Amino acid sequence: MKIRFLKTAGSWREVADAARTTIRKDEGDGEPSSRWKKRILLAEHSPVRKLCFNWKWEDLPYWVSVHFVRHKFGIEHFVSTQRTDRTGEVRDGLRQDAPVVHECFANAQAVMFISRRRLCGQASKETREAWRAVVEAIREKEPEVASACVPECVYRGFCPEFKPCGYCGTEAWKKAVEAYRDVNTVSGDK
Asked: What is the Cα–Cα distance from 150 to 33, expressed in whole angstroms?
């Protein structure tokens, strides 16, 4: 599986101006601080949806692609077809791990929500790896967004799963929760 980060749409200035609109203030100037970015992301206020990301997985196993297609709010999926009339291959004979190309366009709020599910220790290893690749590509462009991409147990402060993976409550989990909540850090490492 390979990932190609295609582009980022929207800017922090647009996010800040939309936030100002919601509280009846005039547009500002300049880039908001890293602390402000992290705070609005943690609050998940609607202006964060102005930041959008576009990426493409190549050679993603079909069954892993299905995990991502289940996400439908704030994200669009474009998955290469397996139709016999388009590929020349009999679809009925394809394995579940047949490679597909899966392109996505998602806003920051959707990326954070998907992270809660797909970075969880209960997600398949392959799905976690594919999603980590997305988060790391985002980290290069928007580190504050990546720092808000955490598994559900870090986001909630407890594990809601019926069969927990065992991460919740560990020292590593405690550090992750602390880093996630700290509006002065964006790396996720403390």
From this structure: 21
